[in-house]
Amino acid sequence: MNRVNGLNPLPILLYHTIDDDPPAWIAPWAVRRDTFLRQLDEIAASGRRVVPLEDAVAALTGGPALPADALVITFDDGFLDFFDIAYPALASRKMAATVYVTTGALGDGAGSLMPPAYMMSHKHLDELDATVVEVGAHTRTHPQLDVIPRLAAAAEIAACKTELEDWIGRPVTAFAYPYGLSTPTVRALVRRAGYTSAAAVREGFSSSADDLFAIARLTVRADTPPETFTAWLHGTDARIAPFPPTLRAGALLAARRTHALLRRR
């Protein structure tokens, strides 16, 4: 297991959709069913122990330390294939996962805020076994929270939590930023809304020193090479959080803020 500055790399995998024939808009982030099942089997064979996200959060807040071979699985958005494919595959292997749901996109493709796609419904959320799947929040309409007005961002963050808690009847404490984008202001809004953690993307390993409200994840994409996935399971081929944002990320934020301001005008 690779260690940097005494930190164990914690792979927190980010999936979006499991689809053999995805629409073009989501295709880069779609993983084929056979590839996904093979990846789960590789995780099991590697000796990695899949732990719930809440265990990682507890470790970050001074609770019991995670085993060195821990791994976390997450899904963003709430596509229907999570319920149809990923959920039964995870349950049969006794693997936990967190699914971050965009509440305004719940329902079929016709009513979804996403481009045409089949999404989970309230009924599907009710049927998820809470011992296997943690339901987290991913805003109401999936905006870029770091460029919209502060009050609009606060409403997106808080309303999503309220809606999910009303639907599933239990607390929702985990949040994920759409597109992985946040700022100190956005992170403060997430804390204020009552969440206990928030996942970013960052394309790196998490660790015991990671930021609880900008947790690093590794995106599993359609074109993720098998050797890269294997390297992640061995704790290599990615940085270990915490690490500073890149200059490119700062430049992109400035450009997107300018674009958003011009659109509002």
What does this entry show, briefly?
The chain is of the alpha/beta class and 265 residues long. Helices cover 36% and strands 17% of the residues.
Descriptive notes:
The protein has 265 residues and is an alpha/beta fold. It has a single domain, classed as Glycoside hydrolase/deacetylase (TIM Barrel), CATH 3.20.20. It is 36% helix and 17% strand. It is built from eight helices and twelve strands. It has helices at 33-46, 53-60, 80-92, 122-127, 150-168, 184-192, 226-233, 247-264, and strands spanning 12-15, 17-18, 30-31, 49-50, 70-77, 97-101, 133-137, 174-176, 197-202, 204-205, 215-219, 239-240. The strands form three sheets. Strands 1, 4, 5, 6, 7, 8, 9 and 11 form an eight-stranded parallel sheet that branches. A two-stranded parallel ribbon has the order 2-3. Helix 1 packs parallel to helix 3 (80-92) and helix 5 (150-168) packs parallel to helix 6. The longest helix is centred in the middle third of the chain and has 19 residues, at 150-168. It is globular. Residues 247-265 have low confidence and may be disordered.
